Amino acid sequence: MLKLYGLSNCDRCRRAHRRLEAGDQKVEMIDLRRLADRGELEETLQHLLSRVDWSTLLNRRSTTWRGLSDGERDNLDHARATALFKTYPSLIQRPVLDTGAQILVGKAVDDWAA
Q1: Residue 75 DSSP label
Q2: Which residues does residue 29 pair with via DSSP β-bridges, in sequence order?
């Protein structure tokens, strides 16, 4: 089963979920904010960051990113980015698709088929 990580109110995530299901794929949609609220985001982040570089997961175009202070945005490394992801799950580029064999980040569903 595919796992699609994102936000339930994100249009791109909902569109990706619908497209994957329309293609007869079994997809589990996982809301990153809900994981954070339940204290389960850290395990998911460890899994994703073991297979994808933190800079790939970081959404530098988000309103959350633009709202951070210069101090929070400067001198990012793996540890600081991980801490930001835990505090602000909306900083994670989305959607994130875990196929089991690979992690696809922030791409259009049409690109995933390739």
Answers
A1: T
A2: 4
Instruction: Give the integer Cα–Cα distance in Å for 49 and 18.
Output: 26
Indicate the pTM of the whole model: 0.88
Residue 113 in tokens: 């088929």
Q: In what order do the strands lie in the sheet with 96-98?
A: 27-31, 2-6, 96-98, 103-105
Q: Which CATH class is domain 2-113?
A: alpha beta
DSSP for 15-74 reads HHHHHHHHTT--EEEEEHHHHHHTT-HHHHHHHHHTTS-HHHHB-TTSHHHHHS-HHHHT
* Terminal-to-terminal C-alpha distance of the chain: 19
Question: Could you state, in chain order, the average pLDDT of each consecutive group of 10 residues for the chain (114 residues)?
Answer: 93 90 89 94 95 95 94 94 95 94 79 58
Peptide bond connecting 89 to the previous residue in cis, omega within 30 degrees of 0: no
